[in-house]
Design brief:
The chain contains twelve helices and seven strands. By secondary structure, it is α/β, with parallel strands linked by helices.
Length: 271
């Protein structure tokens, strides 16, 4: 079965590839409704955590692109004046929201960033620089894009697209701002399936001699003093990622072959 062609026929999606984030939803532990929306490019949402992660990654990896992607809301005077009037939460007022609305109208293709988040991201990056992590693990070709076929166990090659944080001569690295670097250890192989991401990215950038680059996650906590940690993907973790990849593809194939709509899918399991 040509997985991508069959998906386009069933869902009306126009993508000619899958990605880590799409496969995560298509895994048996995911939700086929979210998978279909993601494949159709209809799943548009953001959260404060995602917004901060986007800002952090830009300042860390491609700071020269900041002005093209973001608008810094320099609101100290407005916030200060409103606080002087006894307003405890100035950014919740109509005056402040009107300012934000005007900035958004004037910059429709950019994200708004407040000075507090910008300052925090800079402080976090400074700690990575001071301890040497940035130079060791976050240099090279940053924000590299790939689109390449990756073999599956039961359904031939499937086109996969992704974006790397950093591609070095001997390594691939991915930065993660997080609440807890200790919790990140469990997220890698659990909830967020970062193990799947590592497997796909290593396969995509296999060297010409058939060897692989090491894969590292560079985690950093978002609360002071911004504790960083580096985790290297073990063979056990990468093998889990391979298993997750094939489980996701098999599950997607079952979805394609079934007569059921994505919203009627649910999981039945034994625990």
């Amino acid at each position: 079965m040509d997985i991508i062609k069959a998906l386009k026929e069933k869902t009306g999606g126009k993508k000619d590839y899958l990605s880590y984030s799409t496969l995560k939803y298509g895994h048996p532990t995911g939700d086929m409704r979210l998978f279909e929306l993601k494949f159709q490019d209809k799943m548009k949402y953001t959260t404060p955590a995602l917004q901060f992660g986007s800002l952090y990654d830009c300042l860390l990896l491609t700071p020269e692109k900041f002005d093209d992607r973001f608008v810094l809301i320099e609101d100290e005077d407005i916030v200060g004046n409103l606080k002087a009037k006894g307003i405890k939460n100035p950014r919740a007022t109509k005056v402040y929201k009107d300012l934000l609305r005007k900035l958004e109208e004037d910059n429709p293709d950019k994200e708004m960033v407040n000075v507090d988040d910008h300052a925090k991201a800079i402080d976090m990056i400074t700690r990575l620089e001071d301890c040497g992590i940035k130079e060791l693990y976050l240099t090279g070709d940053c924000q590299a894009e790939f689109k390449t076929p990756i073999p599956t166990e039961n359904h031939g090659d499937v086109m996969i697209r992704g974006f790397l944080d950093c591609l070095g001569d001997s390594f691939i690295s991915d930065s993660k701002s997080t609440q807890s670097v200790h919790g990140l250890r469990w997220d890698i192989r659990g909830k967020y399936m970062y193990s799947l991401q590592a497997y796909l990215y290593r396969e995509a950038y296999k060297k010409d001699d058939g060897t692989y680059r090491n894969f590292y996650w560079v985690g950093q906590e978002k609360t002071y003093p911004y504790l960083p940690a580096v985790y290297k993907a073990s063979e056990e973790t990468l093998n889990l990622g391979k298993k997750q990849f094939n489980e996701a593809i098999d599950n997607i194939a079952r979805f394609i072959e079934s007569d059921r709509a994505s919203e009627t899918h649910y999981r039945i399991d034994t625990i």
